[in-house]
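Records of this kind hold a single protein each, on a pair of labelled lines. With that in mind, the following record should read easily:
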Amino acid sequence: MQWTLVEKPSLPVSVVASFYLDEGVTEISLGIRNDGSDQIMIAWDRCSLILPGGRSERIIHTGVKYAEKEMPQSPTPIPPNAYIAETIWPSSRVEWSGAHWRRDPILVRPDDMIALYLVWQDSRREHQGRWAWVAPASVADFDMQPEMNRISAKPGSVLSVALNLSREGGTPSPIQVSLGSLPRGVEASFEPNPLTGSRGTLTIQIGTAASVGTHAISLLATRGSIVKETSVELVVLQPVFNMAVSHAKLYLWPDDADEVRITFHRDTAFTQPIHLEVRGLPPGVRAVFSPNPVAGDHATLHISTDSSVATKVHNLRIRATAGPVTKEASLALDVIPPGVLYILLLGALGILLGGVLLLILAIK
């Protein structure tokens, strides 16, 4: 594929480059021409290749043995109006595998730039020049996108997101998918990997220690020199609890006592102790929780009255707090006047005597 020359110096040296793609840039060939009237010497040890991302790499050229890649290189002479052909490669990308030497490819994306910094000497002084080429946009032959760009869940959840792959020309080559850095407490995996079909699944496990907030999970899909990046926005929700009380209304007399049972339903990751209080307590009423704070799922509210309490309905609020989460429940405390008790007892006694009398009449 044709790369575009986007930068060159105004000097009497011209450079033509060819980039060979096969699962990445695997070879760079140069044609260097001396357009001046003086012989020049290419100082290879001072030349470099600037790769995508801006990293400068030392280069080796044709004739240098891989085992001597870090040793000084002899300059190459170019007479006036002469031309040489060279193959260059970053020395750091030549490695011994244990059985043979190999060259690691240079992965590029569409519109990535590779630059050559060339140093040469003529009879008068040293010269430097920079040439730069941009990768063609047609390097990309696939695209990968998630079906959902934003997902949310609480700690302790497991989520799955489908990712669809579209290929230009039906390219069958497998695509390797890697994950970027993950937030604390979150694990993720992609299956199948490498991806040979048109659909894969990203599985996200949100641990109980995951940080609440919005996080980006990035995925990098690579096929040779083709690199595509996409991301899924993960919103980790605050774990919460819910509260239920056994009574909506409680009846007491002065100098009386009773209990209200409280039950908590916690999210899987919610382990904080819950602190309880009663708001709206009138004079003459005492409220005590057992236990408080609550580490489990149950508590008991003990409510007692004394003789000074006002005989009416008192609207109380049971408030539970744990970290940023607060829940409230209403409790109506109906304090009944003592005289009502005797009236109720007399009424009950009258009903009982009336029933006995009817029973006697029925027998006769």
